[in-house]
Design brief:
The complex is a heterodimer of chains A (about 160) and B (about 500). Chain A has about 160 residues and is α+β, with helices and mostly antiparallel strands. Helix content of chain A is about 20%, strand content about 20%. Chain A is globular and about 45 Å long. With about 500 residues, chain B is an alpha+beta fold. The chains are: A alpha+beta (about 160), B alpha+beta (about 500). The complex binds flavin-adenine dinucleotide (FAD).
Chain lengths: ~160, ~500
């Protein structure tokens, strides 16, 4: 498995969505790095993110970090390229239409993931319990998702 | 009156229309200085509940009236610039705590709550939100979420988007929707965060809380160069440290920071700047020479170099232990320990520094800030690219106040004057201002940075969004807008470039 690019200085790896997640971890390990996920099952990085990155560390544990810094994908038939940045304030985060959406609105081609120095302890913020963090979308949320699908259809 | 049929607290009084006609985009100040005020909206409404917000939206939709959500108007990108037939919806009458869960801990608070009273009340309960924008005195929860705000302590607590558990909004369809974060998705919440009033009117936000820190540890170091400073900052964040505050100042900004709250000059009036202002105006007519002078080694030495200030929040001994760990990481990298003083001084004046703009504007200058970000590997290109692009047109300095393991925000401050050949002073000033911004944003995009880290886009950066998102990204953003707001009544003109400008 080879990366599209490894940016060691920024601790970012650019990989193809078709890359195998376990092989990516193995390749990173050879470079002294890790994604630090508990997800070991054979699957592609794209499928893993489309299913909601099960096994990734909870974002509430380290609010200053993140999993995905940038990506190239297709949403509603449009090519979307978001170059990596630690954070941005440039409108809605369109990655919400790809992450955990099971391919409903589009697909990921490549992605910039945050990697960690192997063996380095990761920060842990004060405990937070999000009781509804695993809930199913409400009917209102689902209705909005349907409207977005329709709007993406008609923009083509 | 326009609002007949709406049984809400409302006004179309001329003074209110002036007050709600704009936000704090510095270019508005230049206009006001030369006697031009924006038209102002047709009216302002103050809903007191989500139901009343839904009522306003239904009313506006039926009559095709544009609505502009308004928090406290502290935005700096013309997110608020209502047309003369629009209605401003001020959310500040909605400021109740809806649910406070000490166990989680979280707070569901209405969006019009002002920043500082919220933090103060949380402190009394033993908690903190951890969100301290310099504008905390003059901004609201809804405005923070709508513009993806960042507080001074983002290094430990994250930006506002890292704190939102759920939010309630009224979409442009008039529907009341609660969107929530989900660990493994799906979640449409990240679409409304940062939507700057264009998708929905945010009525309440559920925020993650932290215990108020029981201990704090302070440290500061100086460096021979700004670059060495940011390498030290990078090392701290990549080695797993999370100082709540980590601020690196370039040598000139460091010199100002060391002065803390400088004595304020008084002015006799906006068009009668004192002698100091006249000198400043003359100096800023040749910003290239000034920038070149400040870039010299001898100036850097005289100013004491770049300075990094950190504060660790903690529950007990961990704050001090983390400061010691930081010391062990940065001192072998050439950092000179400057003691606790600079960080304590910074904390004491944490909200005062940003209000220095008014005297400069009154003195006939322009002044503004630009907060951009990039991965660490591109930071040098971003920093030097912007200095090169802006340097000939405006005096420029920078600090780095939001770091992450993968990158950093650079906060540029620039000040300029009328171009010598630009005609009447105010018009020439506006010309230099626009040119400076154009060049700065071009340099950011060329370096691979993002055009906004926490001020949002508004109308001032909307024309650049096609280069931020690409034509595909813009098409998707427009589709999302149509889904939430099919008639385009919510804050038209903000965030996205005008439709006809599409290639
Ligand atoms: C001196 C000064 C210092 C600043 N420092 C910081 C800083 O440290 N960090 C930072 O992030 N920003 C800073 N800012 C910028 C500004 O304070 C932020 O953008 C803030 O988030 C705006 O909040 P507000 O309530 O004033 O919103 P407004 O200015 O009223 O609105 C901002 C945008 O959000 C929309 N909006 C407001 N409320 C809602 C709502 N309830 N629902 C939907 N849309 C809404 C508006 O339509 C507009 O597009 C500073 C500004 C000033 C003047």
């Amino acid at each position: 498995m080879s990366y599209v690019q490894l940016d060691r200085e920024s601790l970012l790896v650019h990989v193809d969505a078709s890359a195998s997640l376990p092989s990516l971890e193995a390749a990173l390990a050879r470079d002294g790095l890790t994604l630090d996920t508990a997800a070991v099952a054979e699957q592609t990085v794209g499928d893993w993110l489309a299913a909601g990155a099960h096994g990734a560390r909870s974002a509430w544990l380290d609010p200053c970090d993140h999993l995905v810094a940038g990506y190239v994908g297709t949403i509603g038939g449009e090519r979307v390229e978001v170059r990596p940045a630690p954070r941005r304030a440039t409108g809605p985060d369109l990655f919400a239409l790809l992450f955990g959406q099971h391919g409903r609105f589009g697909a990921l081609h490549t992605v910039w993931l945050r990697v960690h120095l192997a063996g380095e302890a990761r920060p842990v913020a004060a405990p937070f319990h999000d009781a509804e963090g695993g809930s199913e979308p409400s009917s209102e949320e689902e209705a909005l998702a349907v409207s977005i699908s329709l709007a993406l259809e008609t923009s083509r | 009156m326009l609002l007949d049929g709406l049984k809400l607290l409302a006004s179309d009084d001329a003074a209110d229309r002036v007050a709600y006609g704009r936000d704090l985009w510095p270019r508005h100040h230049l206009g006001v200085r030369s006697g031009r005020l924006p038209a102002g909206p047709a009216a302002i409404v103050w809903p007191r509940s989500t139901e009343e917000v839904a009522e306003v939206v239904a009313w506006a939709r039926k009559r095709s009236v544009a609505l502009v959500p308004f928090g406290a108007g502290s935005g700096v990108c013309a997110g608020v610039l209502p047309s003369s037939d629009a209605v401003v919806v001020d959310l500040k009458r909605m400021a109740r705590w809806r649910r406070f869960d000490r166990g989680a801990p979280l707070l569901d608070v209405e969006s019009g709550h002002m920043g500082l009273p919220l933090e103060e009340r949380l402190n009394r309960e033993g908690f903190t939100l951890g969100h301290f924008p310099s504008s905390i005195l003059c901004s609201t929860v809804g405005g923070w979420v709508a513009a993806r705000s960042a507080g001074q302590a983002s290094g430990y607590y994250g930006k506002i988007e890292d704190m939102v558990v759920a939010l309630e909004c009224v979409t442009g369809r008039g529907d009341v929707v609660t969107l929530r974060q989900r660990a493994t998705g799906p979640s449409l919440l990240p679409l409304v965060i940062g939507s700057e009033g264009t998708l929905g009117i945010i009525t309440s936000v559920t925020l993650r809380l932290h215990p108020a820190p029981a201990a704090r540890a302070f440290a500061a170091w100086s460096f021979d160069s700004t670059r060495e400073g940011w390498q030290a900052m990078r090392a701290l964040f990549q080695r797993g440290l999370r100082p709540a505050i980590a601020r690196l100042y370039d040598p000139f900004d460091a010199m100002l920071a060391k002065q803390g709250s400088a004595k304020r000059r008084t002015h006799t009036g906006p068009h009668a700047p004192g002698a100091g202002s006249a000198v400043l105006r003359t100096m800023l007519r040749n910003p290239a020479a000034l920038n070149a002078l400040l870039a010299t080694r001898s100036f850097t030495r005289a100013a004491g170099g770049a300075m990094l200030v950190v504060i660790f929040d903690g529950a007990g001994d961990d704050a001090e232990a983390n400061a010691e760990r930081a010391r062990a990481i940065v001192e072998p990298m050439g950092a000179r320990y400057e003691g606790e003083g600079p960080a304590q001084k910074w904390l004491a004046h944490r909200y005062s520094v940003s209000y220095r703009q008014a005297p400069a504007i009154a003195a006939g200058l322009f002044i503004d800030t630009m907060e951009v970000a990039a991965p660490w590997a591109k930071l040098g290109e971003l920093y030097e690219g912007v200095l090169r692009a802006v340097g000939p047109h405006a005096f420029i300095m920078a600090h780095f106040s939001h770091a992450y393991p993968d990158g950093c925000c650079i906060y540029f401050s620039f000040a300029g004057s009328a171009s010598p050949d630009g005609g009447p002073w105010d018009a020439a000033c506006e010309q230099t201002y626009d040119q400076t911004w154009r060049r700065a944003l071009d340099a950011v995009l060329a370096a691979g940075g993002t055009i906004a880290h926490h001020h949002g886009v508004g109308r001032s950066k909307a024309p650049r969004m096609d280069r931020e998102l690409g034509s595909g990204g813009i098409a998707v953003a427009r589709a999302v807008k149509r889904a939430f707001d099919p008639d385009g009544i919510l804050n038209p003109g903000a965030l996205l470039p005008p439709e006809e400008a599409r290639p």
